[in-house]
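Severity: low
Component: inverse-folding endpoint
Summary: output formatting inconsistent between runs
Steps to reproduce: submit the following structure tokens with default settings.
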């Protein structure tokens, strides 16, 4: 019997795959089952976009309109989300925008984000991890005039390389071994751009790397084998104001960094790019304090790419220094925020699943309602038993502080994922502009894909203030008010409540027989007015009772579902 994979071939022997780059304005993406040779001679079953694993790099230009034809030939439903991009809810590709098998979804939008590295991946609830694991992910490079005016390496595949980092587990016959709802860093093989044991030839000059953590959970701690410094020039949402000298860059799931490494004068040398995972602590997946027995990637430093330095390019002309200033950003002043929303990342103990504000995702509940044009602070506190990368759709945000301390320089640019440690509180600030939809929400969630699939995710609508209900008579200042609109209602009603002071609370809905039919909110809120949409789903028409309970008070509101 011929023994097939996964052969442990000698390290770093496969040329790093560089996904093809495609330009618009029209982009055709077809998702289909395929096979990919991670190990030579072994055909591994995968999913791909227009190919066997991952997808093409989409090149967008700020200000252009793009038209995407996304065809699902997987034989099962999925969605495709443009991670990091500021697009309308109906174009965002979240769990509500299902692409049924053998159909084509055709979003079209203007590219509003600045030059940056984004990515795309499926987002079907409870299937995201599996679909990404099998190969559905791709990079997006956004270009704009401001970035183009800077002397930076930007020739794709020549002095500007995508690096999609993923850990994967292969079984005895070389097939991907996906573990549903896995919440650890399980893969024991590094795959970069779909290549195992990759080697890349780089020119002896300044070279740019767009690094994406495309893993389900593993955290990477990027460094170069000789411990040299390099410059971080960009974060999730685009370029930083100035390059930051670094020798390590930590990336949690979903995060990106643009790095420039200088190989000048090193022709003939071989170096490796390493994840210094032995330096990861505090429950960072794959780190030193949560080693998984027998997994050589956990708690140990490992090479994920070998680079061999070759002659300089003549075209493009090598860049000789990274500009000392890059772009000008407009961090938002704390005083501009009209509200602070608390997001408690909790759970993780027996009987308490990982959740946000005590609530596990229910696609029928809108957890937060945001007004168009508002600037808000989201205060994310991790009371759970492990770390979580918190991600928001729709917007890029600025990190105000981590436990009250301003973030390090490389975290002062635009972000859409922020890694939050146990017992840490991170405040981010953002403005909700341009897009509203009274029906289709945006998502916020943990970007550990196993946590996301388990429901560590919530939904927010962005609505126009003009559609708000009229406020009623003034009320005593210490009163809790609970109202709903419309009432009666036929599908969904907005529960609006005002709290005089910060409190723990729970909002439940009961039917006429006193049976609890839904928990709409459970968690802590600051003083203020809040809205949550309750969708009645398939419940029969009738009178229901909404209760808002705090440790000291209970407010009851009858509501009428008319159908
Ligand atoms: Cu990378 Cu909700 O997504
Ligand atoms: Cu996203
Ligand atoms: Cu998580």
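Observed output (run 2 of 3):
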């Amino acid at each position: 019997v011929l023994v097939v994979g996964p052969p442990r071939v000698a390290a770093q022997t496969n040329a790093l795959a560089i996904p093809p780059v495609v330009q618009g304005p029209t982009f055709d993406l077809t998702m289909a089952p395929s096979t990919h040779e991670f190990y030579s001679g072994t055909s591994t079953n995968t999913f791909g976009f227009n190919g066997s694993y991952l997808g093409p790099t989409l090149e967008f230009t700020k200000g252009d309109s793009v038209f995407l034809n996304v065809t699902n030939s997987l034989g099962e439903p999925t969605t495709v989300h443009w991670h990091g991009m500021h697009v309308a809810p109906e174009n965002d590709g979240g769990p509500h925008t299902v692409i049924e098998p053998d159909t084509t979804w055709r979003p079209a939008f203007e590219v509003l984000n600045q030059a940056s590295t984004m990515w795309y991946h499926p987002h079907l609830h409870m299937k995201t991890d599996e679909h990404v694991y099998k190969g559905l992910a791709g990079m997006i490079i956004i270009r704009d005039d401001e970035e183009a005016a800077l002397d930076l390496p930007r020739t794709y595949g020549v002095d500007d390389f995508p690096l999609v980092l993923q850990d994967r587990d292969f079984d005895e016959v070389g097939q991907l071994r996906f573990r549903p709802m896995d919440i650890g860093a399980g893969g024991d093989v590094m795959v970069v751009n779909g290549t195992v044991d990759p080697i890349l030839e780089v020119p002896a000059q300044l070279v740019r790397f767009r690094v994406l953590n495309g893993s389900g959970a593993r955290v990477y701690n990027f460094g170069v084998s000789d411990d040299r410094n390099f410059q971080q020039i960009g974060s999730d949402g685009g370029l930083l104001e100035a390059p930051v000298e670094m020798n390590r860059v930590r990336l949690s799931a979903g995060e990106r960094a643009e790095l420039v490494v200088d190989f000048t004068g090193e022709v003939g040398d071989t170096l490796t790019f390493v994840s210094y995972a032995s330096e990861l602590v505090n429950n960072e997946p794959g780190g030193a304090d949560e080693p998984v027995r027998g997994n050589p990637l956990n708690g140990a430093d490992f090479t994920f790419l070998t680079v061999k330095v070759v002659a300089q390019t003549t075209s493009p002309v090598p860049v000789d220094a990274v500009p000392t200033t890059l772009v000008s950003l407009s961090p938002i002043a704390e005083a501009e925020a009209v509200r602070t929303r608390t997001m408690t990342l909790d759970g993780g103990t027996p009987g308490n699943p990982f959740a946000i504000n005590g609530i596990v995702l229910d696609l029928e509940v809108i957890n937060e309602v945001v007004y168009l044009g508002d600037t808000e602070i989201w205060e994310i506190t991790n009371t759970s038993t492990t770390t979580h990368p918190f991600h928001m759709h729709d917007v890029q945000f600025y990190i105000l502080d981590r436990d009250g301390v301003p973030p390090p320089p490389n975290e002062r640019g635009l972000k859409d994922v922020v890694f939050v440690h146990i017992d840490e509180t991170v405040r981010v600030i953002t403005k909700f502009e341009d897009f509203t939809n009274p029906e289709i929400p945006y998502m916020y969630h943990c970007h550990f894909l196993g946590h996301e699939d388990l429901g560590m995710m919530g939904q927010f609508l962005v609505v126009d203030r003009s559609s708000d209900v009229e406020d009623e008579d003034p009320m005593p200042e210490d009163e809790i008010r609970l109202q709903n609109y419309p009432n009666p209602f036929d599908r969904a009603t907005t529960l609006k409540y005002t709290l005089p002071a910060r409190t723990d609370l729970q909002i439940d809905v009961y039917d006429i027989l006193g049976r609890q039919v839904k928990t709409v909110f459970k968690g802590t809120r600051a003083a203020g007015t809040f809205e949550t949409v309750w969708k009645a789903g398939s419940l029969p028409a009738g009178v229901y009772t909404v209760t808002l309970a705090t440790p000291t008070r209970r407010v009851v509101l009858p509501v009428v579902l008319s159908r």
